[in-house]
Specification:
This protein is α+β, with helices and mostly antiparallel strands and 415 residues long. It folds into two domains: 254 residues, Beta-lactamase (3-Layer(aba) Sandwich), CATH 3.40.710; 110 residues, Beta-lactamase. The protein is 30% helix and 13% strand. The protein contains twelve helices and twelve strands. The chain has a six-stranded antiparallel sheet with strand order 1-3-2-12-11-10, with helices on both faces. A four-stranded mixed sheet has the order 5-7-4-6. Strands 8-9 form a two-stranded antiparallel sheet. Helix 2 packs parallel to helix 5 and helix 7 packs across helix 8. The longest helix has 15 residues. The chain is globular, with a radius of gyration of 20 Å. The N and C termini lie far apart (41 Å).
């Protein structure tokens, strides 16, 4: 069985391939894929490692593929995996298509499209607030029943009835899973199609991108289980400390009151969970962002791409994550917390023109129109934190250096 890196790369990007290999040999990577497009052409296409760990621990995803074999299956070029909040980029893109086509108004009240949502203090909420994490419903206070995360109608009903944690638009706090239903329900109501179907028909299908919001049964055998991280108990983040110490906190409810969200549950994978349940390959993520790196291509207008790339909200203390964050309309911008205390250093350092989304544990997809760059990285072994870790960041850094960028000390990569 071959677990060494496989694939191809342009010689200019040899350092990227070296970092990918180091991730597997030195940094705890188990299985991963990386795909990089520049001006629409693939310059890196790599995969390697294994789908699971080499111990027969069974169906919890920490051991073999369920068949009892001690030797894990290799990660091949078509292996897919749950990419957590990279899914938000797909959900946001679906909404932006509707904005670009004149069907959805960013500054209209949410109640114009979803009247039931405009209650209990959310009457002033706008579509823009839904996308930039300022609408104020990052968590649900009342306990969700098991399986709720796979029940679209229930989740939307609960979010519509929820009192906001702050007055909509007055601050921003990361909407971990709820983003998928707040933005996704707007997509459903405006388009007349479910979020997953709309994305498949309007984005993934035309682009040939293996990204799904709601996994078809025919693709199930391609999906590697997610391997949970080993907590760094010596350097707990403020978010984690609050989560552990305050049972009623926004942080605990956002993280734990998820209605049974489990990325390795086949029913969860089938469900359209637009905030964190999407499944993708690295190629799929890069292809999804390809038109955006090219100024819109045949997918959206150049104005839409410019709109996606602008910072919409920024704060020194995200109401949910309790650290500095910067967001566009549904997309993350470069976030540099590397100089903060240990446990508070979650970062994703990109260029100032880049936008995309990371997934918990370290996956990422993004576009950089100024560089003509689209980038996708997917892996199964989660790292600690909500943003990138050294594995993903090393690949991003090497890619920018190969493109002639020379410095990231300002918090963004510059030429």
């Amino acid at each position: 069985m071959t677990t060494e890196p496989q694939g191809t790369w342009d010689p200019r990007f040899a350092a990227v391939a070296d970092e990918f290999a180091r991730n597997l040999s030195e940094r705890g990577e188990v299985g991963a894929s990386l795909h990089v497009l520049v001006d629409g052409e693939p310059v890196v296409d790599l995969w390697g490692g294994t789908r699971t760990l080499p111990s027969p621990a069974g169906a919890d995803g920490s051991g073999d593929d369920g068949g009892g074999a001690a030797e894990p299956a290799p990660w091949d070029e078509d292996t897919a995996v749950v990419v957590y909040s990279c899914t938000k980029g797909a959900t946001a893109l679906a909404a932006h298509l509707l904005v670009d086509r004149g069907a959805l108004d960013l500054d209209a009240p949410v109640g114009d499209y979803w009247p039931e949502f405009a209650t209990n203090g959310k009457e002033t909420a706008t579509v823009r607030m839904m996308l930039n994490h300022s609408v104020g419903v990052p968590a649900l206070r009342e306990r969700l029943p098991d399986g709720a995360c796979t029940d679209w109608e229930l989740m939307c009903e609960r979010l519509a009835a929820e009192e906001p944690w702050w007055e909509p638009g007055t601050r921003n706090g990361y909407h971990m899973l709820t983003f998928g239903w707040t933005v996704g329900e707007l997509v459903r109501r405006v388009s007349g199609r479910s979020l997953g179907r709309y994305f498949a028909e309007e984005v993934a299908g035309p682009l040939g991108a293996d990204v799904w919001i709601g996994l078809p049964d025919a693709e199930a055998d391609r999906v590697a289980p997610v391997l949970q991280p080993i907590p760094d108990r010596d350097n707990l983040s403020r978010f984690t400390r609050v989560l552990l110490d305050d049972k009623g906190s926004l942080q605990r409810l956002a993280w734990l009151n998820t209605g049974g969200f489990d990325p390795n549950d086949p029913e969860v994978r089938r469900a359209e969970i637009g905030g964190g349940g999407g499944i993708a390959t690295a190629r799929g993520l890069a292809r999804m962002y390809g038109p955006l790196a090219a100024g819109g291509g045949d997918l959206v207008s150049a104005v839409a791409v410019a709109r996606m790339g602008e910072v919409s909200v920024a704060t020194g203390c995200d109401a949910t994550l309790l650290l500095p964050t910067r967001f566009g309309l549904g997309f993350m911008k470069s976030m540099d917390n590397r100089r903060r205390p240990a446990g508070e250093r979650d970062s994703a350092v990109l260029s100032s023109t880049a936008f995309g989304h990371v997934g918990a544990g370290g996956s990422i997809g993004f576009a950089d129109p100024a560089a003509g760059l689209s980038f996708g990285y997917a892996m199964n072994q989660m790292g600690n934190g909500i943003l990138l870790n050294e594995r993903g960041q090393s690949l991003v850094d090497a890619t920018y250096r190969a493109l002639g960028h020379t410095d990231d000390s300002t918090g963004t990569w510059i030429r």
